[in-house]
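Continuing the batch. This is chain 6 of the set; chains 1 through 5 are on the previous pages. Same settings as before, nothing changed between runs. Recording input and output for traceability.
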Amino acid sequence: MKIVFQGDSITETRRVKDDPSDCGYGYVCKVSYQLEGHEVFNQGLSGDRSAEVLKRWDETLNLQPDIITLLIGINDVWKTMSGVNPTNLDEYEKNLISIIELTKDKLPNTTLILMTPFALNFGFVNDEWIKILTVEQKIVKALGKKYSLEVIDLQVLFDLALDIYDQKEIFWDGVHPTDLGHKLISDEVFKTIKAYIK
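Output for chain 6:
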């Protein structure tokens, strides 16, 4: 099977962009070890918001994957807070709807799995970030329900992880996971997608 992971820097994690087979060093790489015998593609691109992912979504569809996972949203928050290329929440929702509907239209047999954007409230993340992020998470979950898509709630994953680990063990800066943080994501992602693996 062919599986594509799409998103921003959390997905990219230092992949070699001119090598389609390179999965980087994060959760995509870790999941790929559990998907031996299947084709795995990392299309994450650092700095991307939902708008940029939508613009290059045809690159994902052109691969004709069996499974796509999408993790996007934290840069929509970051750039809104910084005032550089801000994305309001309506735009975020519309971008996700366009991505979902394009996928259903062009690849009706492809499984699209959504993942909630996430953060922990430390580093450069503050209460205002969390307010916007919480709404994005609700949007992702609502769209998953509306379109009958699997949703992986990564915020819940990390909130529960704080019962075991210190926040600095699983995040560098409130946004980017450590190697352990990526391991937690990869385990959750594999647990979800293995049901769709043939």
